[in-house]
Specification:
- With 427 residues, the chain is an alpha/beta fold.
- It has 14 helices and 13 strands.
- Helix 10 links the parallel strand 6 and strand 7.
- The structure holds pyridoxal-5'-phosphate (PLP).
- Pyridoxal-5'-phosphate (PLP) binds next to helix 5 and helix 6.
C-alpha cells in the first residue's frame, strides 16, 4: 500500500461526518472514555438488546408456561423467527438456518452427522491455525468413531504462520478424507478463505465440507446456499453483538434435509409432532432438526435486536464500511508505526481479509496492557498478536486515528515496559 499524502485527524473527522453508519453509534452502549477495539471477540451491547431482554423477562413474568405460544415472541417459534432473520447474513434459505446451541456444541452436532468414516475414507481435514475448541471437538469426534486423532486428523500447514494457502488445502483433499472442516476467517490473521473454490474442489472429490463462520458472520456476506456448502456453524456474540455466551447458529444445506442428526433430541422433531411424545423421532425436514433440547429463550433475546439492526443496515453495506475503516487503519499503521517493531499480519487484499486488523509485535502482551491503561480495549493472541477491530456500527474513524497514535507513543516512550510479560487469564 502506498501512502501518497499524510493522513491527518482532519481526514478522520471528515470520514466520520460523511459516514452513513454514524447514527448507529447511538444505538450502542459505548463505554464512556474508552475506545472499544474488541468487537471481534465480544460485540457491544445495543440499546435494543436491553429492551428485548426486558420484554422476554416480562413475558416469563406475565405469561409463565403460556409464553411458549403467546405474547409478542412466542418462545416455541422464536428460533425459527431468528433463523429467517439470520438467513440473509449467510446467504441461505430460512429453513437452512437454526439458531441453537453453542459454536462448540454445534460443531459436535454437525460433525457427528456428517463424519461417516467408510472404507478408505476415515480422516478429517482441518488446518493448523484454527481455533483450539474446533480442534478439540474434531479430535473427540474421531475418538468416538474408534480412531486415533493423531493419525486421522489432518491439519494443513501454514507456510508463514499467518495464512493457509487454498492450494495447500486442495492438495490435501486426498481420497482418505471423509470430511473437511475449516474456518471462513482465521481468528488470528483475519485471512478470509475462498469458500466457493474450496467447496467446489471438495465436491469434485465427493467430500462433504463445512465451515466455522465465527469470525465472518456479521462482518462478511456469505453465499453458502448458492455455493452448496454442506454445513456451517457460528457464534452470535462477536460481530453480531448477541451478548456473552449468546445462543449460536448453524446452517445445513437443504440437500441434506431429512438426515437424522448425530445428536438427536426432542427439538429435532417436526414441531407439530413434538408434543405427541412418541419414542419414534419424526425428524424435522430443515436445519431445525439439529436442535437438541429446549431453546435458551432468554439468551435469544439480544439476537432479535441485533438481527433487526442488520436487516436495516444490510450486510453488503456493513462489509463496505468495514473494509473502508480497516483499510484506513492499515494505511495509518503503515504511515505512523514504521520502524517501531510492528508488522501487519493480515492479508492486504480486500477479498482476502475479514473484519479485524492483525498487528504483530514482539511486545504484544505488554503493549496490550499499556493500551488498556490508555482506555483502549484490544485483544491479545499468543504469541505476538494485537487484534484490533473497528466495527462498522460503532467505531469512529477518529477513534481509529487515536488508537494508532497511542500505539506509536506506547513504543516510542517505552510505556509498555511498566507492565509484566505474563498474559492475563482472559486476554
Ligand atoms: C469464538 C470461537 C469459538 C468459540 O466457541 P464457543 O463454543 O462459543 O465457546 C469457536 N471457534 C471459533 C473459530 C471461534 O472464533
Amino acid at each position: 500500500m502506498n501512502v501518497e499524502k499524510l493522513i491527518t485527524i482532519k481526514e478522520a473527522k471528515e470520514y466520520d461526518s460523511k459516514d452513513e453508519f454514524q447514527p448507529y453509534r447511538n444505538e450502542f452502549f459505548l463505554q464512556p472514555g474508552k475506545i472499544y477495539m474488541d468487537g471481534n471477540s465480544l460485540g457491544l451491547m445495543s440499546k435494543q438488546a436491553e429492551v428485548k431482554v426486558d420484554e422476554l423477562m416480562d413475558s416469563w413474568k406475565q405469561l409463565a408456561i403460556q409464553g411458549w405460544t403467546n405474547g409478542k415472541y412466542p418462545w416455541f417459534y422464536l428460533p425459527e423467527k431468528l433463523s429467517a432473520m439470520c438467513a440473509p447474513l449467510i446467504g441461505a434459505e430460512s429453513e437452512e438456518v437454526s439458531i441453537c446451541g453453542s459454536t462448540t456444541s454445534n460443531i459436535h452436532q454437525v460433525v457427528s452427522t456428517f463424519y461417516k468414516p467408510n472404507g478408505k475414507k476415515t480422516k478429517i481435514l482441518a488446518d493448523e491455525l484454527t481455533f483450539p475448541s474446533d480442534i478439540y471437538a474434531l479430535q473427540s469426534q474421531i475418538k468416538l468413531q474408534g480412531y486415533d486423532p493423531d493419525e486421522h486428523l489432518i491439519q494443513v500447514k501454514s507456510r508463514d504462520g499467518r495464512m493457509i494457502e487454498e492450494d495447500d488445502i486442495i492438495a490435501a483433499m486426498t481420497d482418505d478424507i471423509a470430511l473437511i472442516f475449516l474456518p471462513t476467517v482465521l481468528y488470528r490473521s483475519g485471512q478470509l478463505l475462498d469458500i466457493e473454490r474450496l467447496t467446489k474442489e471438495a465436491h469434485k472429490r465427493g467430500i462433504p465440507i463445512g465451515f466455522d463462520a465465527c469470525h465472518s458472520i456479521g462482518a462478511v456476506p456469505h453465499r453458502f446456499s448458492e455455493w452448496e456448502v454442506d454445513f456451517a456453524v457460528w457464534c452470535n456474540y462477536k460481530y453480531l453483538n448477541g451478548g456473552p455466551g449468546s445462543v449460536a447458529g448453524l446452517y445445513v444445506n437443504k440437500k441434506h434435509f431429512g438426515i437424522t442428526p448425530g445428536l438427536a433430541g426432542w427439538y429435532s422433531s417436526k414441531k407439530d409432532k413434538q408434543f405427541d411424545m412418541s419414542h419414534t423421532l419424526d425428524v424435522e425436514e430443515s436445519a431445525g432438526a439439529f436442535q437438541v433440547g429446549t431453546s435458551h429463550v432468554l439468551s435469544l433475546a439480544p439476537i432479535i435486536a441485533s438481527l433487526e439492526l442488520f436487516a436495516e443496515a444490510e450486510i453488503e453495506r456493513v462489509r463496505q464500511k468495514s473494509l473502508h475503516i480497516t483499510r484506513f487503519m492499515l494505511q495509518l499503521i503503515e504511515q505512523e508505526l514504521d520502524g517501531l517493531g510492528y508488522s501487519i499480519g493480515n492479508p492486504m487484499e480486500d477479498e482476502r481479509r475479514g473484519g479485524h486488523v492483525c498487528l504483530e509485535h514482539d511486545e504484544a502482551v505488554r503493549i496490550c496492557k499499556a493500551l488498556v491503561a490508555e482506555n483502549i480495549i484490544p485483544d491479545n493472541r499468543p504469541p505476538n498478536i494485537i487484534r484490533l477491530a473497528p466495527i462498522a456500527f460503532y467505531t469512529s474513524y477518529e477513534e481509529v486515528f487515536t488508537t494508532v497514535q497511542i500505539l506509536k507513543r506506547i513504543v516510542i516512550e517505552k510505556q509498555y515496559e511498566q507492565y509484566g510479560k505474563e498474559r492475563n487469564v482472559v486476554s
